[in-house]
Amino acid sequence: MNYILRLDNWIFRNINNYLKNPVLDGVMSFFTILGGTTISILLCISLVVFSQGNSVGKESVYSLTVGHFMVQLFKRFVSRPRPYLVLPGVKLRRGFILKDYSFPSGHTAASFSIFTVISIHYPFIAPVLLTVAVLIGVSRIYLGQHYPTDVIAGAVLGIGSAVLFSL
């Protein structure tokens, strides 16, 4: 376990401290917004409205709801502080101070839960959606909000909730 935590911190530091530049600041902020609550809910509503009888919309809503419930359950059970509360020198954008726990990443879980459902129904778009979901997860590390294991756990929860309702 100690090895995993050291590796987690090392990967976090390399992404958060050493990749910093103004262009990536903007790009990563954009991807973080894509994984947020507002965009996730609007995307689900759009899928329900425009799915034309296909179950992709309902499955996305169910997957997002269950994924979010599981994220909140794990956050309370694990109670892992966010990296900027524990590690010195974390590069954090202003206005990004959150009061909840770090594990798992809700943004990552939301994006993977919705994008996995869409990918199951429309496999031709899966590579693009997977790339966007991964960038959302990386953005959470880049912006100092999550450790890599938080992002991996969010992805697993999101994929799991999607598979639960799509197969």
TrEMBL record:
<feature type="domain" description="Phosphatidic acid phosphatase type 2/haloperoxidase">
    <location>
        <begin position="61"/>
        <end position="166"/>
    </location>
</feature>
<protein>
    <submittedName>
        <fullName>Phosphoesterase PA-phosphatase-like protein</fullName>
    </submittedName>
</protein>
<dbReference type="InterPro" id="IPR036938">
    <property type="entry name" value="PAP2/HPO_sf"/>
</dbReference>
<keyword id="KW-0472">Membrane</keyword>
<dbReference type="Pfam" id="PF01569">
    <property type="entry name" value="PAP2"/>
</dbReference>
<feature type="transmembrane region" description="Helical">
    <location>
        <begin position="124"/>
        <end position="143"/>
    </location>
</feature>
<dbReference type="GO" id="GO:0016787">
    <property type="term" value="F:hydrolase activity"/>
</dbReference>
<feature type="transmembrane region" description="Helical">
    <location>
        <begin position="150"/>
        <end position="166"/>
    </location>
</feature>
<dbReference type="GO" id="GO:0005886">
    <property type="term" value="C:plasma membrane"/>
</dbReference>
<feature type="transmembrane region" description="Helical">
    <location>
        <begin position="27"/>
        <end position="50"/>
    </location>
</feature>
<keyword id="KW-1133">Transmembrane helix</keyword>
<keyword id="KW-1003">Cell membrane</keyword>
<dbReference type="InterPro" id="IPR000326">
    <property type="entry name" value="PAP2/HPO"/>
</dbReference>
<keyword id="KW-0812">Transmembrane</keyword>
<keyword id="KW-0378">Hydrolase</keyword>
